[in-house]
Amino acid sequence: MLWLKALHVIAVVTWFAGLFYLPRLYVYHADAKDLISTQRFEIMERRLFALMSIGAAAGIFFGLAMLIESPAYLAMTWLKVKLLFVAMVIAYHAYCYKLMRDFAAHRNKRSARWLRGFNEVPSLLLIAIVILAVVKPG
């Protein structure tokens, strides 16, 4: 179980590194005016999204492996709430994909200011998830 937990944490760190940086790239992309810059951001976004998706898949895989190893955890309220927040992270990840496709198709309608606020969401989700996983309230 400890190996699964260690691999889960490593994968989640990889995933969140991408979730923290990709929306910041969107901010810069939204402000870019020249073709060379926008093409550079499209390449950076696509590569980062691929890496963070690998982290996401591994994090989910190792998380599920831990649940299969110890299914009794599913009866605990803190884990159910944590999984709700994880579902929100997955939805955020999917929306990042939509934004990336919008930028690539030159149809982004979001301002750099909106994207700065969007960039804060994974921090709030991570705080909630870590507190639930470590403190295990209730």
SSE topology:
Layout: H1 2-31, H2 35-69, H3 77-104, H4 112-118, H5 121-135
Keywords:
138 residues, 83% helix, mainly alpha
Task: Give Rg in angstroms.
Answer: 17 Å
Question: Hey, roughly how much beta strand do the residues contain?
Answer: under 5%
Percent helix among the residues?
Answer: over 70%
Q: Low-confidence parts lasting 5 or more residues at pLDDT below 50?
A: none
Oligomer: single chain
Question: What does the model show?
Answer:
This protein is mainly α and 138 residues long. Helix content is 83%, strand content 0%. The mean pLDDT is 96.
Quick overview:
The protein is mainly alpha-helical and 138 residues long.
